[in-house]
Amino acid sequence: MPSKIPGMDYALNPYTGCSHGCSYCYASFMNRFTGRRESWGSYVDVKVNAADRLRAQLRRPRQGTVLISSVTDPYQPIEAQFGITRSCLLLLTCANLHVSILTKSDLVCRDIHILKDLPSLEVGLTITTPSDALSRLLEEGAPPTSVRLGALAALAAAGLEPWVFVAPLGPYTYPSEAEALFKMIVDAGASSILVDGFNFYPAAVGRVAERLRGDRRGKRFAWALANRDAYRRELTDLVAAQRLPIAISLC
Ligand code: SF4
After folding, report:
1. pLDDT above 70 as % of the chain
2. Percent of the chain beyond pLDDT 90?
3. Which long-range contacts (CB under 8 A, 24 or more apart) does 225-232 make?
């Protein structure tokens, strides 16, 4: 379907809901549209007809960029069973579209041979912390950082020039940790890094604060909550200070 996201002409979401269940996720607003009453992160609906609908839409010539996905992760664990994302990608190998994929899952590596057949592709991994422990705490349903770095290296080795979205680089991450993360990403073979700050969406704030309760990171998070401009300045200065062999920028 047509997308309102800047730079994206179409958005393709093979799933609704997301079992990665990131505490900071602001896509939880989707509950309003899905009619599901369960908490965000606890359900995934499979669009079993997604490939059929895409096939029908591709009967007319299309141009531009299609984002997979915009309000969920296209590589849900259940994708290993259903293969909806893979079916859509196979169709897109015959389309004249630029495909943009963003995921937190190493399952993307299953499709490397298909990704290499796409006429035009950018593939990115979202990695938010150098710490597997923090990743497991805040992104409990997603593969931890070390697994994502392994996927990044595999995509790079396949010549797909993956980029990394460090989003959010939350205020619970210390600057020294952020710099360690940037180095890990460079070492794994990323082509560029894009950093985004924490979105203080009220539901996300509540979930993250709950997860960090009693943790020293919780104090930093509370500081940022009360000093959002200072947090943003810190983030801007941190990114500007990097001297990396690849491009790094801030949203
Ligand atoms: S992977 Fe993305 S869509 Fe899924 S819960 Fe995490 S932030 Fe939200």
Report:
1. 96
2. 85
3. 225/171, 225/200, 228/200, 231/171, 231/197, 231/198, 232/197
